[in-house]
Amino acid sequence: MKPETKFTHKGRPKPSLSTPVNPSLTRASTLLFDKAEDLYRNDITTYGRHGTEVHLALCELFNELESGVGTVLFPSGLASCTYPILAHVKSGDHILLTDSCYGPIRSFCENQLQKFGVETEIYDPRIGSEIETLIRPNTSVIILESPGSLTLEIQDVPAIVAIAKAHKITTIIDNTWSAGLVYKPLEMGVDISCHAATKYFGGHSDLLFGAAICRTKNHYERVKRTAKLIGNSASADDAYQVLRGFRTVTARFDKQAATALELAVWLQDHPRIKTVLHPALSSHPDHGLWKRDFSGAAPLFSFVVNNMSPKDVLAFVNAHELFGIGYSYGGYESLIIHCDPQLKRQFDPEFGGPLIRYACGLEDVADLKSDITQAFNAIS
To answer: Which end of the chain is more exposed for a tag (fewer CB within 10 A), N or C?
Structure first.
């Protein structure tokens, strides 16, 4: 069954007489019982923080998305990454973190985890099987992100996972870029796949949400228990919105990804652009890995500009009319950011110019090309 069919029919009530097509939205903190004996049961929901019907329906869809055995929902994409890490580390542990990771994850590992006696070591995202040289007896977690959300390196995930399994190390990947639609890391043996559902599944830039999909029951129970102990709670209203976004995510994702690829191909020949970083292009250094492991591309890519001063970069970004200036991606609107202020890397890529990122929305691609053209003309 194709994803678009699954996402239309899964996570819905069984039809009877006048049945709504979606599960009911329940807003609740206190849940009432007619028997005191039921208050302390572990096989039912006893408090609103532990989820409602709509949360269960949404978990069913995330499990379908990546063939997971269990999903834990979070109030943000960042939380969907930090809680699984917390669930698998203890004082004295050593973890490995890709240099291409989402910036707040790096900050969490290097600052917050350090307070608890967990050491974070940064590794080159293109290290592949050579990651074995970094493993220590106390290495507990390897954190991946493929591709990197700014610099778009593709990691050799199967090679890294094989090493991790041999050493009984948990692997956690940020899989937000692909929406789980064109990349299936759990099928490659990754233990936990994390998503900022804020993006494609929210789809309208008006909510924050996250999900951690687990490959095994053991990983799922550990993440679920950690989330419960720390007080995690995802809003029923937001869960309902993400569930609704699931119904149309494939159509939106496919159109936005096609727009991004067309723009990337078109920009390759622009005289003001040095390099376009889109893994579906044969010029991308990791194109072979992308072709091997991915079934498609996503609406997000970056490019390096030629002969542009910091002042000109700001003027170029500001000149866009259809591309909004803002973080995140996966919503209906196109966005642009200049990346260099946040490129604090240990293994710095030699780009040879300022880095800019486009996130493509649902606008007509010809209109977006016109917007880009007038933005370049504005600084000529």
So the answer is: C
